[in-house]
Amino acid sequence: MHECISDLKLHNAGGHDNIYNEHLKMAGPQLEVHLFLLFNAMLRHSYVPTDFRFGIIKPLLKCKNGDQSNLNMYRGITLTPGITGSIARSANLPVFSLLRGRF
Q1: How many domains are contained in the chain?
Q2: Pick from 48, 40, 35: nearest CA to 4
Q3: N or C terminus of the chain: which is more exposed, having fewer CB within 10 Å?
Q4: Residue 25 CB coordination number (10 Å)
Q5: 78-95 burial, b if ≥16 CB within 10 A, otherwise e?
Q6: pLDDT tens column, 8-42
């Protein structure tokens, strides 16, 4: 969990919970323990809280010099809670380390 939180990028937009990556990085090891316990409980009970499955889709202009009235000049990005990303990355770490050894 520590590795996932320390790898978070700063100055990113926060999700609907208004928790930014800076909050997670500055919270300290106590939060890491609680997030670890939360993640393990989610795995044990095969349950993901509704707020963790929610994201805000924002349009992002592909090229600033393009026609801003053309919808094809935009792509969507999804703003999700920072905690959701940390948990997802921590779930992927063991999988990726196993895959690296096989390929």
Answers
A1: 1
A2: 35
A3: C
A4: 16
A5: eebbbbbbbbebbeeeee
A6: 767 766 666 777 777 777 788 888 888 888 888 88
Which residue has 């009235």 as its token pair? 69
Nearest to 49 by CA among 8, 73, 83: 83
Residues 23, 15: Cα–Cα separation, whole Å: 12
pLDDT, tens digit, for every residue of 70-98?
A: 888 999 988 777 677 666 666 655 544 54
Say what the pTM is.
0.55
Amino acid 98: pLDDT: 45
Residue 26 lies in domain: 2-102
Integer Cα distance of 15 and 52 in angstroms: 10
> Is residue 62 a contact partner of residue 77, using CB atoms and an 8 Å limit?
no
pLDDT at 65 exceeding the cut of 50: yes
